[in-house]
Design a protein that fits this description.
single chain, mainly beta, Metal Binding Protein, Guanine Nucleotide Exchange Factor, Chain A, 8-stranded mixed sheet, 3-stranded antiparallel sheet, 1 helix, metal ion binding, Mss4-like protein
Length: 139
């Protein structure tokens, strides 16, 4: 069982699945969502995710690159917890922000980097990690 939570601890969740895929996303929206150079996304079947405490606030947006995403975050501390989308390849999955897993985030090494044309110029591609210009990874 993997546990996650927001910074203030009012929202906690867990998942029980070994069916995960981890990617770094360099799209402009993920940079805004995380306030960082990229987001680290651990994709887990939605059926494996259980909300333990609290209720996240949700915000939906058109990515401008095809899919519409719904972000779940804590209304008190603003921690982004996960994203969801009905778009092909995303439907039925929670795209968990690895930072919400605390020290457990180290267990999910990325298999790919997506939206690589938007990677910050000062970042090098991860060694031994597949590189993709969009979201069609086949991972």
């Amino acid at each position: 069982m993997v546990k996650g939570r927001c910074l203030c601890g009012k929202i906690a969740f867990e998942f029980n699945s070994s069916d995960t895929k981890t990617v770094l996303c360099h799209c402009l929206n993920c940079k805004k969502i995380t306030g960082s150079a990229y987001s680290t996304n651990v994709t887990v079947p939605s059926s494996a995710v259980t909300l333990q405490t609290g209720k996240p606030k949700e915000f939906s947006f058109d990515s401008g690159q095809g899919p519409v995403f719904k972000i779940s975050f804590c209304a008190d501390c603003s921690s982004t917890l996960w994203k969801e989308s009905d778009a092909p390849g995303f439907k039925g999955y929670h795209i968990i922000q690895s930072g919400a897993l605390g020290e457990g985030c180290d267990d999910y090494r990325p298999q790919g980097e997506i939206f690589t044309p938007y990677r910050s110029k000062w970042l090098e591609p991860m060694e031994d990690v597949k590189q993709f210009e969009g979201t069609d990874t086949g991972l």
